[in-house]
Structure formats: structure tokens, C-alpha cells
Batch of 2 targets.
Target 1
Amino acid sequence: MYNDEQNLYHYTYRKDGSEPGARCDVQQGPAGTRPTVDEQLHSYQSGPQQPVQEMKPVKKNRIGLKITALALCCALVGGAVGGGTVWAVSRGGSETSVNVSSRPATQVSIKTVDGKTEMTDAEVYAANVNSVVSINVTGTSGTNFFGQPVQTASAGSGFVLTRDGYIVTNYHVVKNADTVKVTMYNGDEYEAKYIGGDEDYDIAVIKVEAADLQPVTLGSSDQLNVGDHVLAIGNPLGELTFSMSEGIASSVNRAINVDGTPFNMIQVTASINPGNSGGPLLNSYGEVVGIVSAKYSSYSNESVEGLGFAIPINDVIAMIQDIMTNGYVSNKAYLGATIGTMTQSMAQQYRYDISEGAFVYSVEENGPAAQAGLQLGDVITKIDDTKITSLEDLTAAKKSYSTGDTSTLTVYRGGQTTTVELTWGAVPADQQAEDETQQEQTQNNSQYGNGYTNPYDIFDYFFGNRR
């Protein structure tokens, strides 16, 4: 410590400025000049001497230790009565403390899904996680350079529908699978058997040999509102098994196109990633209202987030029951014709007056289309009141009908518009294993498909040799 009293300049290690022994005073000379070294030495030797004080041992400051001990005692007492724990550190008389909660962990009760009791997210998870399954699939995809089959592996999700082992998932999860392995939440593994599915609706049913499984409770997707809270449980990335994500319903009737197939979907903000496909979409009552099916990760070279989709359960539950009974959707509307999309290029080459619609490439003998009077070269422009501009439109419209339903088709034929009455048929059983969905004919695939490698082959059918 520096002191400046009565023009004396000296240094001391004492806090109060006093010194324990001899003092070294430095006096100022005339006109503020500093004295010489000899004068300073003489002043030191001849000046009054202070008695030498005896140094006493300094007692250690134990205040900080006492405070710490007191805080720990309080923490122990507080913890016993449910309070928080306090860590205290004393530094130079000040105290720094860290509060640590001793609140016991929340106990999540497993409730029964009754459709009446709204649950927390944790309760929905606890009530349904034992009904969710992880699905691992192996298959074969073509051959390599040496002609050897190429083995493939993929993963998805599903949910238990019945106690005796029927499980619902997406068709694309188990399509062309050689083996299907199902893993339950408790670690039990089963080899599953493929029962049947439908690519148009992307649904499939598999079965494991088990008893007393915990099935889900189905809700009504028609009662879901935009903004309602939804949760998805599944197997994202094939590794993060039994993960739950949450969000809201962004749209409850969203029409999207997946690889050329139109779907009516529930759009959600819950995180949906590869491996989630086939898992349940749940409402806040713990009911399954959808089957998680697809996610857009990019659109027009733009990265996107918050776009997940699920198939409304009301749209497919009757088909799922049909698959469980018959192995396929037996009452699915069937046209009995090969259909493609009418294009501007086709209109120019065929000299048609229209450039959009569903073009009829072939008609199955004695099928529903033939019985209705549809012909090769017809262009379907409307089904009842629904406008048809492409194959996708026809496929989407067909989903609204079942076997035995009757529709009025508006058809362009030979430069004029006519109507025909069609009774939708049932898909033949021997075609269930095949891709019954009519694939759009493109310019690059045999030009106009179904054996017509020359566009004038069809033209000649109607107009003789006119070209």
C-alpha cells in the first residue's frame, strides 16, 4: 500500500498503512528536489527509531468454511423435505451458489386409450410404443455385371392391429421382399409373412405368429382438424428405433403425387424421415388417425422442412380388412383398360382436337371398359363431374369408387364428344400379384406403348393408310 502523508512517501504491506518496524522516510529537498542517496541514508540512520514490534501469528479466516458447511447442512435438511440442493463457494467474503433441483422424476402412467381422455405426449407414447414395430426387409434387385443377384436391405415401421399378430405398414416398405423381420419394443423378434397389399393406396398387411400382442386403437381421420396436435412413432433412419416426433396437422386433405401415383394425405409438421414409413400417426387421445407414408426432403432443388405426410386411416381401413380376409383389395374399382396421358404431341400426330385427357391404349376383352363400349383411341375427359386431364386424374378419381358402382364417362372419339355408362368391375385375382395400376405411356418407352412402336400403327387403325 502506498501512503502520502506530510510529504512522506513510503510503502507498507499492511492494509491500514502502518508498519511493524523501522520506517524508511524519504523527505523532499529544497524547491521540490529529491535528496541525494547519502542524505537519505543519513536521515534513516539519525532519525527517530520505532520500537520493533513482535509479530504475532495470523489466525486463518475460517468464515468461508463455516458458510460452506452451513450451506451443505441446509441442503441436506432441505433435500429431506423435497427442497433443492445448494452448492456454495466463498470467495473473498462473497458467496457463489448453484441451485440443484431435487424434484423426483415424473411418473408417466400408462393409460388405456378410450377416445375420451386427452393425454400428454409422454402418456400417448407410453400407451402405444408397445404396439409399434420396427421392420427390416431384405430383397433382391436385379443382377450385377456378373449376373449375380444384388441383395438389398431396407427398414421401415408398422403397428400391431390385432392381438394375434396382424401388422399394418406401407406397401413400399415390404414390396418385393424376400424376408421381413419384425422387432417389438421389448426386443422380441419375429419372422413376418406377407399377407397382401395395394400399391395404389400404399398399404400392406403382414402377420407374425404371436399371441396377446398389444394392438392400437383406431380413431377417425375425418375428425382431425388443421392445427390439431399429432405424434408419429417409428424407426427413423432404420437405427433410431421407437422414436417419437410431434407437430400439428398442416392440412387434412392434401392431394400429392408420389412417383406418378396421386394420394390424398394428411400433411403434418412432425419430423418424418426414411424408416418412419408405415408407422402410426396419433392424435392427442392416443388413437391412430393415419399411416405415415412419405416426406418431401427437396422440391425443385430447394431443401424443405416440416413436410410430412400420412394416409388418412378412414380412407384405407376397409381395404386393410379386405386384405386380411382375401389377401388383396377385392372390391377395388377396376376399369379393364390400359390407359395413358394424352399429350400435345399425340394430338398433333393423331390430328385430335384435344390435347389432354386419359388415352385408351387397349381394352380388355369382356372387361368393364369393353362392356361400356370404350374403344382403342378414346380419350376420357370426365368421370361423372370430375374433370380428367391425365392418367393421374383418372387414378385419383377411381379411388372414389368400389366394385359395382356406376359412373358416366365423357369420351372424345373421332372428333366428337360422347358419353358411356360404366359399371366398375373387380380386379381379377390373378392380377393382384402384378402391377395392376396403369402406367403412363411416354414418348421414350416404345413411343406409344403396348407394342405400338410406330405412332402410325394406331393412326392406321382408325384412318386406314392416312398419314
Target 2
Amino acid sequence: MAEKVCLIAGAGIGLGSGLARAFAKEGLTVALLRRPRNEAELAPLVEDIEAAGGRAQAFGVDVRDEEAVIALFQQIERDIGPIEVCIFNNGANVRFPIAETTTRVFRKVWEMATFAGFLVGREAARVMQPRSSGTILFTGATASIRGGDGFAAFASAKHGLRALAQSMARELAPKGIHVAHVVVDGAIDGAFARGYFPDIEEKVAKAEILSPDDMAQSYVALWKQPKSAWTQELDLRPWTETF
């Protein structure tokens, strides 16, 4: 019997790892995507999931490459099983003053956060529509709804991803496919946060920073929602975060 798959684009440290562990515990085979040069960094996560009794496979794919994305979806559907959940969790958070934002930076951020989301979302829709079922989840940010000082490239790209998710949700819901956008409003516990906040351990102890494992439970809940009560947008933030 074919295994149901949860595909995670942007499955590195932090939230990506939390998502991988959570969906593996739910019995799905997790297909973990990172850029080819970073694929080897997924090995410890695959080992941890398999040691806990789950199933995971790592793939080195540039999700900005249309042919590579199409081939990957075909490979997973053929060799592993139907993609039940597809999560687009790419980063691309950079800060540049507008006068110092080059066309290369602006275009690259858009490619990573918006164009890649389109490619992954489109291919997920293509394989899910014949089955009239599936869940597609997009990870957003504070920048998805508010453009901050120095974040012109990132905010515009994340606004675009949010609009993509809304359009897909309206088109695909009548076809049995749940599309949701998750606004992540706050810092996530991980390598970046631990290098940025000198008091990180205190913040973690007081739940003042987003926990990847706790966040992942909300993604699982979105997947499990009955059709009578689907959420299109969900926001996640620590209890101390202002909004």
C-alpha cells in the first residue's frame, strides 16, 4: 500500500525540523527538501525521525527550478506515495535599506519566497486535484501583512505569497483541497535566534519565543480540520509579542 507523504520545502533547522518530526509522528512519510548544496545537512534529521520509528527521505532540490520541481513531485508520487500534505516553508528574510537594495537581491528574494511558492503550490494542486483531497500550507511572516523598515524586498515577496495562498484557497476549496497561510509573528527558536538573543534560554523557559515543535502542532491541526470548519489564515506568536 502506498505511503501517504508530507512534502516540506524548506525543511532545515527550526520550524522545518519541527514540522518534519510532527508529521512523521502522524504516520506520514516526510519528504524533506533543501537546496542541493545543503541536502547533506538533513541527514541528522532523517536519522532522528527513523530512530523514533518514522519514515523520512531527503531531497536536494532548488524549488526555484521549474523542471526540477515538476520532476520531484512525479518522483515522489511514483516511488513513495500520494502527497497528502504539502508545506512551503522557505525563508528569504533579508534586510536592506531601499537605496541599497539591488535588483539582484529584490529578484532573488521574490524567487525564493513567491515564485518558488507558486511552483510548489501548483504542482501540489496538480497531483491533489484528481483525488479531490489534500492540504497545502504556506508559511508566512509578519512581513506578509506589514512592510517594515528595511524589508521592502522581503515584505513584497511575502505579501505575494499570501495573495497566492488566498487565490489558491478560493479556487481549490470547492475541489476538496484545503489551502491555508500561517502568519509567523515572532522569532523562532533555532540557530539564528540563539545567535541573536543573548538571553535565549530565559526566553525559551518563559515561552517568550516561538517553539518549532509547538508551532508544528498547529500545522497538524490545520491538516486535520474537517471540511465544515476550514481555516484559511492562522497567526502564531508568543504570548508576549505585541500586535
